[in-house]
Write a structure and sequence with these properties.
cell membrane; membrane; transmembrane; 35 helices; single chain; elongated; ten-stranded mixed β-sheet; 10% strand; five-stranded mixed β-sheet; 1103 residues
Length: 1103
């Protein structure tokens, strides 16, 4: 019933230790005892840290024959003691022999595990759906849970190594018996939608401000009740649309701290999100100063009325402002709970002051108030104030709109503390929209009531009372017994809606309560901004989009309070408070807020228009077209308010946007910009399929057979140079070997190779295929690589240096790849460097270590600054099965092979690019060097064209080629005719060629045809005497061309020459490689052998 084995520690065991378990022979598939390796993942408190008896060496079964398995025993007591006595392996056998599911949990060692609670009650690797499987974050002290991978379910069950708290290699949450549990982290303070967003800590208090008390009655007098309502409703339209957009974005996923910056950056991406986050945090910091200065001005006015100035009017604002912002900082540092309590107090003060005003409007007016223009509710006063009466330089609709609009810009205050809300997805929409509704009602009510009670002009003098109907009295006041005609005509009235800013205080039942309301409005707005700015800035710092700001991102306490951010905001606020001029700092702040509104609305519109499956906001009451309208009108309002401030704000956004675009931060937030890029790419790719090809639009689209791209960096650099920003480049890699072994390697290596290309600034794709041999894999790539019209038309590969010593079949495959490329109508570019292309020299120490367990290797090569010298370093990463990684770095000596890996990344200087256009291939031999010459690194090189000709017709042939090249408009003016191509090469060079092909000859001169065919059947790469004779002229031509290249192009930067073609089935692979070897040998410059597909890639026609 139970199976027992002996457990012992492996001598090289890591921590937690590996256990070697010897299984009895009857359980081994081979009949002999098999070893199993398991990891201690959990034990009892008593057994923790104890070790069973360790032996000096593992048992007979070696490391190579072990079966890696990870075992968790749940609540098994005295685990170490059990190991020393013997190990019950019943629950492990299924994993050891590859069965990943059992019939039930009962009766197994897993019955005490929480694995069973994650299923339907039986022991299976599959788990039921759970929140933890989709969350990418977890709380402090919370164990991570995850679903099994596809390989866990589909393939033989493998263990996830180095996993603590796991069961059967899968994450588990239940702690072992007796294991001490860490103390739970204290819960941070969180707020609901009322306390957190609508009422006390944010939107209503930030929307209500000085405008409500000091400017709204004056705006009503200027614009009339009707147009004032229009101004309010226009402003509210913008803020409501923005509120709907905020609601949609905030309900499309889990919202964290960072507020407006978080919403925009995660929706539009780091480029726009980072720029608006920085200026929005700065605008909030300056807004602290603006609201504090407004408070200080009111206090200064009270001191002036009582002749109690501290120093002088300007310095009093500075003194009061600094003291006030210091007190507000203390409230903020005390924690969000104290800040919320302070905001509740301010809200109650404002509410009482507003009720005090409404009560005052229904109290019968005293003579003193009547002298100042207040007569309680009167229909004729309402009718007179219903129409506009423009006065002064601000007397225009948009002038008054620009004054009022900043009072509606506080709707983001709740979103800015999204990290301190219990459920931001519920709190932000509900609280923000309710705040907009109630503040709008308050503005409309105040405008209507004040316009129905107070005249536009009043003298304030009790001596102006007259009898009703007195002659010479003009105006509405005459019907109430007051003559304000003189001051109205001379525009010297001190009171009335048009002249007295403190009219609300005069109308109210108790004036000091209105002053208290002004204090509450200014201080609450200042406090809200003082909290918002560090919260937004902290999130920005943590994302590390900009340099030198990470210092301010550190959080303290259970709420991760950004104390350093508070101090920075405090310093900025004091700097602007010292200006002591409210009108100097207000305009640009409003424009920064409007920038945020525009981007929030655009974020909502852009996310909707891209039709991304990830855009699924639970808030449905929004419209993408309304969001676009809100974005547009926000930009328009920016310029209507203050055009120069709008230009400054947009200039800063563009500058910060450009910086992030240049730096390309390594973040991936699934933004709508990514979705839009996909939509555009898909649309254009499909549209491109409908366009007929034309020679004028030909682009060299290359399939580069690099293997791992970092193994052949020079080949990647060369092709990347002429395809960058021009055409398609795909780096192809053929993985040869067992599919079961290579699938994980392909998956792990693909992302790494793509990152390597990006880091090397190569604009290319990487793709790999699994195949039984190289040639079949390349055939797959030739047929399947690309998409639609964006498919390779050129195959680029490196020259096979070791063809003479290589296996004959690999030689056949290499030449066969060239034939396959021509069969699929591809051009061919073959690059040869004297030093070679392959730099994949992995140290022997790594190749010998655990060779059975190596999944793959990655070799990174680059220059490292050491003092004043650049030293070439290599970093080798060896990936073992199970995820273990071995890494090492070492310097290379001044090795020519390694130096050649960066040859195409350096300036080429004033050398030459020599083109040997010997045969007409459609123009590809000319086009690729021309594209190279357009690049900066090759710009100083002079291009020379060499063509073959006859000695008695050199001038005519040169003129013909020059005329043809001028029609192609390539700018090649130096043309040389080589007349001696067909001359006999030097004897020593002919002898060297004969020695080169000698090992590959059949030497069949005295054999009959049947014997020759039998030899050729087994060795198709061999060269018969008849083939040597038949291709003798072509062979000698390659020898002669090499002599010409050595004479003319010894010091060139690059040699481009037409690739000779060997006829398929008629030219043995070894002979063809001998041609290429002879043609390009002993040349110091890089040699690129090019052959088009014999179709035109150049034209001199316009259509």
């Amino acid at each position: 019933p139970s199976v027992w084995g002996r457990g012992l520690l492996h001598p090289r065991a890591p921590s937690p230790p590996l256990l070697w378990v010897q299984l009895p022979a009857q359980l081994s598939s081979s009949g002999s005892g098999a070893a199993m390796v398991c990891r201690i993942c959990r034990g009892s408190a008593a057994g923790k840290g104890q070790r069973s008896t360790a032996l000096s060496s593992p048992p007979a079964p070696t490391w190579e024959h072990s079966v890696p398995t990870q075992i968790c025993y749940g609540k098994l007591p005295h685990f170490s003691a059990a190991l020393s006595l013997g190990l019950n392996l019943k629950s492990v056998i299924s994993a050891a022999i590859g069965a990943d599911e059992a019939v039930g949990c009962e009766g197994t060692q897993l019955s005490g595990s929480s694995l069973c609670t994650r299923t339907f009650g039986y022991n299976t690797v599959d788990v039921v759906p759970a929140y933890e499987h989709y969350a990418n974050s977890r709380g402090v002290g919370e164990a991570r849970r995850g679903r099994p991978s596809l390989a866990d379910l589909h393939s033989i069950l493998k263990v996830r190594p180095w996993c603590k708290g796991c069961c059967n290699g899968l994450p588990d949450t239940e702690e072992g018996a007796g294991e001490p549990s860490s103390a739970p982290a204290p819960e941070p303070v969180r707020f609901g939608w009322v306390k957190g967003v609508m009422v006390s800590i944010r939107c209503m208090l930030n929307i209500w401000g000085v405008i409500l008390y000091l400017r709204l009655p004056w705006i009503t007098a200027q614009a009339g009740i009707a147009l004032t309502w229009l101004i309010i409703l226009m402003s509210v339209t913008v803020t409501t649309i923005t509120g709907l957009s905020i609601s949609a974005i905030s309900t499309n996923g889990k919202v964290k701290s960072g507020g407006t910056y978080f919403l925009i950056s995660r929706s539009l991406g780091p480029e726009l999100g980072g720029s608006i986050g920085l200026i929005f945090a700065f605008a909030n910091a300056v807004a602290v100063a603006m609201h504090t200065v407004g408070f200080a001005e009111t206090v200064r006015d009270l001191l002036q009325e009582h002749n109690s100035l501290i120093v002088d009017p300007t310095n009093d604002i500075r003194i009061i402002g600094v003291l006030t912002v210091t007190v507000l900082l203390g409230i903020s540092l005390a924690g969000m709970e104290w800040e919320a309590k302070a905001q509740i107090l301010f809200f109650l003060v404002i509410l009482v002051s507003f009720i005090n005003y409404l009560v005052g409007t229904v109290i019968p007016a005293s003579a003193e108030k009547q002298a100042k223009g207040f007569f309680s509710y009167r229909a004729d006063i309402f009718a007179q104030n219903f129409v506009p009466d423009w006065r002064g330089p601000e007397g225009s609709f948009f002038g008054l709109f620009s004054i009022f609009f900043p009072s509606a810009t506080g709707i983001l205050a709740g979103a800015n503390i999204s990290g301190d809300l219990k459920d931001p997805a519920v709190a932000i929409p509900k609280g923000t929209l309710m705040a907009i509704f109630w503040t709008t009602v308050s503005y409309l009510v105040l405008s209507a009531t004040i316009g129905a009670c107070v005249l536009r002009d009043a003298s304030g003098s009790l001596n102006d009372s007259v009898a009703v109907g007195s002659p010479g009295c003009e105006g509405l006041g005459c019907s109430y017994g007051w003559n304000f005609t003189d001051c109205a005509q001379r525009q010297s009235c001190r009171y009335g809606l048009s002249n007295y800013y403190q009219v609300m205080s005069m109308v109210s039942g108790f004036g000091p309560l209105i002053t208290a309301g002004i204090f509450g409005a200014t201080l609450s707005s200042a406090l809200a901004c003082l909290v918002s700015a560090p919260k937004v800035f902290q999130c920005l710092c943590k994302d590390q989009l900009y340099p030198l700001i990470g210092f301010f991102g550190k959080g303290y306490g259970k709420n991760s309070e950004p104390i350093r951010g508070y101090m920075l905001t405090y310093v900025i606020a004091i700097g602007f408070i010292l200006i002591a001029e409210l009108n100097a700092i207000a305009p640009i702040i409003s424009n920064f807020f409007l920038c945020s509104y525009a981007l929030i609305n655009f974020s909502c519109f852009h996310a909707s228009i891209t039709n991304s499956p990830g855009w699924r906001p639970s808030f449905r009451y929004y419209s993408k077209w309304a969001a676009l309208f809100g974005a547009t009108i926000s930009v328009v309002i920016m310029f209507l308010l203050t055009w120069w401030a709008a230009l400054i704000a947009l200039g800063i956004v563009v500058f910060l946007l450009g910086y992030v675009l240049y730096k390309k931060p390594d973040v991936n937030w699934g933004s709508s910009m990514q979705a839009s890029s996909y939509n555009l790419a898909l649309s254009y790719s499909v549209g491109l399929s409908e366009v007929d090809e034309h020679i004028k639009n030909y682009r060299p689209q290359c399939l580069v057979l690099t293997g791992p791209p970092n193994f052949r960096p020079a080949l990647v650099d060369f092709v990347g140079t002429f395809t960058k920003n021009l055409s398609l480049m795909i780096c192809g890699n053929v993985l040869i070997g067992p599919r079961k072994q290579k699938v994980p390697e392909a998956r792990q290596a693909s992302d790494g190779h793509t990152r390597w290309l990006l880091k090397r600034k190569i604009k290319a794709f990487y793709t790999n295929v699994l195949a039984e041999d190289l040639r079949s894999g390349v055939q797959m790539l030739l047929q399947a690589a690309g998409l639609g019209k964006m498919r390779p038309n050129i195959v680029a590969l490196g020259y096979k240096r070791d063809w003479q010593a290589a296996a004959p079949q690999s030689l056949e495959d290499y030449v066969g790849i060239l034939h396959d490329a021509f069969d699929f109508k591809h051009g061919v570019c073959l690059l040869r460097l004297r030093e070679g292309l392959n730099v994949s020299r992995v140290p022997q120490a790594h190749s010998k270590c655990c060779r059975h367990a190596v999944v793959g290797t990655v070799l990174l090569i680059g220059n490292v600054q050491c003092g004043k010298k650049m030293v070439l370093f290599a970093a080798v990463t060896v990936v073992l099965r199970g995820g273990a990684v071995l890494m090492s770095a070492f310097p290379f000596a001044a090795d020519p092979e390694q130096q050649a890996s960066t040859i195409f990344q350096s300036q080429q200087g004033k050398k030459t690019i020599d083109i040997y256009w010997l045969f007409d291939d459609g123009g590809l031999t000319l086009l690729i060097p021309y594209l190279l010459g357009r690049k900066k690194r090759w710009g100083k090189c002079k291009i020379r064209v060499f063509v073959g000709g006859q000695i008695n017709r050199m001038d005519e042939e040169r003129k013909a080629i020059v005329s043809l090249l001028s029609k192609f408009r390539l700018g090649f003016h130096e043309v040389h005719v080589v007349p001696d191509i067909n001359q006999q090469p030097r004897p020593e060079h002919i002898r060297r060629f004969d020695e080169l092909i000698a090992p590959f000859r059949l030497n069949d001169g005295f054999k009959d045809e049947a014997a020759v065919n039998e030899l050729r059947h087994g060795c198709p790469w061999k060269i018969s005497d008849e083939e040597v004779h038949r291709h003798r002229a072509k062979s000698l031509r390659q020898v002669r061309l090499n002599e010409i290249l050595l004479d003319y192009s010894r010091d060139a930067a690059l040699i481009a020459i037409t690739l000779p073609i060997g006829r398929k089935g008629r030219c043995p692979s070894s002979l063809y490689m001998a041609w290429l070897e002879t043609l390009s040998q002993d040349l110091r410059p890089p040699v690129i052998l090019i052959r088009g597909n014999q179709e035109n890639v150049l034209t001199f026609y316009c259509q």
